[in-house]
Design brief:
Pfam families: F-box. InterPro entries: F-box-like_dom_sf (IPR036047), F-box_dom (IPR001810), LRR_dom_sf (IPR032675). This is F-box domain-containing protein. By secondary structure, the chain is an alpha/beta fold. The protein contains 20 helices and 20 strands. The strands form three sheets. Strands 8-9-10-12-14-15-16-17-18-19-20 form an eleven-stranded parallel beta sheet, covered by helices on one side. Strands 2-1-3-4-5-6-7 form a seven-stranded parallel beta sheet.
Length: 649
């Protein structure tokens, strides 16, 4: 066929062409990858399927396009209760032997990724047909717990043997009730050279039991399932030589009460949790994993209430390049003897995400973990995902830590991360970015970050806590962060918030280059000219009514409050609505001419043109780049019809 197909005809080299006295064959554009990618972009599934049959070059590019539009293939029947944070479309259609060749729907940006779901018979047919391909488009698979039964061992072995050279993303959900008789020994001999992402979930179906009760007997426990789960994960992780991301969730699946043991007064009983976790000499299976070759890892761990055991299981992650640890409900794992974790002498951990769920972690545990990572850790994040997770953090000398994030899911949570007194030069010498936006609760939790005994000369990016209303902490910014370049803060009309904004305008004028103002609900439809310009409300009203935006002569002798004009070095100013349904504040021509136009270094402005004329917008566009946003997500036309009665002034 190559003699009749000009696209596949052998091209002679220049030297060969010279000897033959024939000109060299020109380069064919339709065989160049980036050109083919542009041509195939947006093509239908049917066309992409046909493109794969033309030649090797077309096959490679068309396969790549198909891989970007195909979602996970689900193997087994998924129980809806196992979905948790994974979002898939769950349908199970009958298909013939050529389903994957002929049943692709048309591609569209508005159509979600295509997902297939197979039972054992369909998977067998799928393997029979797809095994004939040397470059299959299917690279994402999810295997659910109900499929890990002895009857499917040979079928799963065939699947892994075929898919291992091609699979890139793998999700496995396990229920220990299904794993007692399953043998994953075949996985030891399989490698996954292209596997880059693994999500591994184990859902436990038992209640907490007191030590000595019949429920802690190994015959009634899920010990066999635990062992199989560990063997499956360890085999896959060790066989994936280029793994980039690993997320492990070992969590108790529970409904309603029984999640945690409580005293009669309603307070958590950590001692009973601890003793329950010790039933049968248990421990977290995570601490037995040896994953020193994994460059990125996300661990959602379920340790016992014992802080020493918690420490052991967390520190075992130190050889990994990135990890997310979620500590929550204590679990009894009976009949499972613990062994010390193997810790690498040269840890690679660069990113650590501590996700806290109803856990008590002792200060020494976190301190010990950070000490072991002081030479490698670059990013650290604390996230509170459940009530009652108190953590006190004392930093050792973190030689490489450049980014710190503290967030919470509940603004009423009082027991979460509390930062102890610190010295930036001694403990966080190269910190560059700090995000405290969702750090809810009392100011005592984060105030030490603004009261350091020594300044941070490296921090350039700061996100204020959304509830920061302490003027004293704001006044200390130039002392603690003298080189601050970018600041994100809330923009609210509350008196205490206005005082913080005014303080920032006053103390950050010599360093700040970027300012992000996130408007709260109380600013909607409110005129904010007096806040941004520093002028009295009556003067702003008079200037707007008279449409005279040059400061009158008598204002020359007036003392203006700190305003945007105080930020002499500001280059970027961005307003953002807190919620997509929030209404924007009123920013009129007064702010446009008196504040925006008078900022000497302003290069970029993003705001809602809610109250500003087009003439003023055009004048601003000549000064700097302007992005005008809609006042809200519902009624764009209200801009032109709004009656500027200035009642908010």
């Amino acid at each position: 066929h190559t003699k009749t197909n000009p696209l596949l005809r052998d091209r002679a080299s220049p030297s060969q062409a010279k000897r033959r006295k024939t000109p060299p064959t020109p380069v064919i554009p339709l065989l160049i990858n980036h050109i083919l990618e542009q041509i195939f972009d947006g093509a239908s599934f049917k066309d992409l399927k046909n493109f794969r049959l033309v030649c090797r070059e077309w096959n490679n590019v068309a396969t790549k396009c198909l891989q970007s539009t195909l979602d996970f293939i689900t193997i087994g029947c998924r129980n809806i209760s196992h979905i948790h944070s994974l979002h898939y479309s769950n349908f199970n259609q009958q298909r013939n032997n050529h389903f994957f060749m002929n049943q692709f729907p048309l591609s569209s940006d508005n159509i979600p990724l295509v997902t297939h779901s197979f039972n054992a018979e369909q998977l067998n047919r799928f393997l029979e047909v797809i095994s004939k391909s040397t470059n299959p488009p299917f690279t994402k698979y999810e295997i659910v717990s109900s499929f890990f039964i002895p009857e499917n061992e040979q079928l799963l072995q065939r699947f892994f043997q075929f898919s291992s050279p091609f699979v890139q993303d793998l999700k496995i959900s396990l229920d220990n009730r299904h794993l007692g008789q399953f043998s994953p020994s075949f996985l030891v001999y399989i490698t996954f050279p292209k596997l880059r992402s693994v999500v591994f979930e184990v859902h436990r179906q038992f209640e907490l039991a007191e030590p000595g009760s019949e429920d802690t007997d190994s015959s009634n426990s899920d010990f066999g399932g635990n062992a199989v789960s560990y063997r499956i994960l360890s085999s896959i992780s060790l066989g994936a030589t280029n793994l980039e991301s690993l997320e492990v969730s070992l969590q108790r699946k529970c409904d309603g009460e029984g999640q945690r043991r409580y005293n009669q007064d309603g307070t958590p009983n950590f001692e009973r949790d601890r003793r329950a976790g010790q039933g049968g000499g248990g421990g977290c299976p995570c601490q037995h994993f040896d994953l020193s070759s994994v460059p990125t890892m996300s661990i959602l761990n379920s340790p016992s209430g014992d802080s020493s055991r918690m420490e052991t299981s967390i520190i075992s992650l130190s050889p990994i390049a990135a990890a997310a640890v979620s500590c929550h409900l204590p679990l009894p794992i009976t009949g499972y003897q613990s062994t010390p974790p193997r810790i690498s002498n040269s840890p690679k951990l660069k990113k650590l995400h501590l996700r806290l769920r109803n856990s008590f972690i002792h200060q020494t545990c976190v301190m010990s973990l950070l000490e072991r990572l002081d030479n490698t850790l670059e990013e650290l994040c604390f996230t509170e995902e459940g009530h009652g997770s108190p953590v006190e953090v004392e930093f050792p000398t973190m030689k490489r830590l450049s980014k710190l994030t503290i967030s919470s899911i509940c603004e009423f949570e009082q027991n979460f991360v509390t930062i102890l007194p610190l010295s930036y030069s001694d403990q966080l010498p190269i910190l560059e970015s700090m995000n405290l936006w969702d750090c809810f609760g009392t100011e005592k939790r984060y105030e030490q970050l603004f009261l350091s005994t020594t300044p941070s000369h490296t921090l350039t990016e700061l996100v204020f806590p959304s509830q920061l209303r302490n003027v004293t902490l704001a006044q200390n910014i130039p002392n603690v962060f003298p080189r601050l370049k970018s600041l994100t803060m809330v923009f609210s009309m509350r008196t205490e918030n206005l005082a913080v904004i005014e303080t920032v305008f006053q103390v950050c004028g010599e360093s700040l280059e970027e300012l992000h103002l996130i408007t709260e609900m109380d600013t909607q439809n409110q005129n904010v000219d007096h806040v941004l310009t520093g002028l009295p409300k009556e003067i702003c009203r008079k200037m707007k009514m008279e449409e005279n935006f040059t400061l009158p002569h008598y204002l020359q002798e007036m003392t203006r409050k700190p305003s945007l004009n105080s930020l002499k070095k500001l280059r970027k100013l961005m307003f953002q609505l807190e919620h997509k349904y929030s209404r924007a504040p009123l920013i009129t021509d007064v702010t446009g001419y008196v504040a925006f136009m008078e900022m000497p270094n302003l290069e970029y402005l993003r705001f809602t043109r809610y109250g500003m004329s087009w003439n003023c917008c055009e004048a601003l566009a000549k000064k700097c780049r302007v992005d005008v946003l809609s006042p809200n997500a519902n009624n764009v036309f209200e801009i032109e019809n709004f009656d500027f009665d200035f009642e908010g002034m």
